[in-house]
Here is the input.
Amino acid sequence: MKYGIICAMEEEIRLLLPDLTDCTMTEIAHRTFHEGKLYGKDVVLVQSRIGKVASASTATTLIDRFHPDCVIFCGTAGGVAPGLHVGDVVIGDRLVQHDFDCGVPERIFEIPLLGIKYFEADKSLNNALIKAVENYIKNDLHSDIPACYLDEFGIKSPTVHTGTIASGDQFICDNQKHEWLYSHVESLACVEMEGAAVAQVCYEFDVPCAVVRVISDSANDDSNVDFDRFVKEAACHFTRGSMKAFLSA
Ligand code: ADE
Here is the structure.
């Protein structure tokens, strides 16, 4: 089994790279694909950069050139569903591109010619990821992230959630957009900028896919977490800890 793992930001893969052994690096289209063993499993690890085009093109190269058996995207998201807090983790059961609109109201979000609005994540990958992230939070989170950062970000006892993840080429930090998304996307949990693009590529290649997101903000006017600090001091630990728990299980 070979796992493709994608993160959008350098800071998010930063802690995984030193744990990769027998590593071969291949440069393709301004991306570095790191092939090797991570916690005993064969992986290809790559930073996609931010947004739907960057992540879709990265997923395409990853699948076409490296043939992973599945693809997992890890990163941060803005929480939209009530009850989600900074530090909670969402594992998407469905992915939708919230900025896709061909102008036919009842077909909003539908990808033309595919006829699909919501791309399904792989159920068995998701079940294994839920267990892994829960174990990470219970056993290692509080020793990984210094108490001063947990306090700063208001992280106490994070919980793991499932739901729809909506992706678009927009950082959402506006109450009106937040409300619009919550009322238009079925079972919306959180928003980010890559997952549904990767899910569409995986669908077209018939490769199982999963998206794991730690909540960094509430995608509205009163998000008061410093996003860059959150990625650097917290999200990178969630990514490494979750992948370690998942791949070592
Ligand atoms: N990633 C993290 N927070 C986000 C937000 N509010 N909107 C889009 N992508 C995000």
Summary: The pocket of adenine is lined by residues 76-78, 171-173, 191-193, 216-217, 219 (CB under 6 Å). Residues 227-248 form the longest helix (22 residues). Residues 73-248 form a domain with the Rossmann fold fold (CATH 3.40.50.1580).
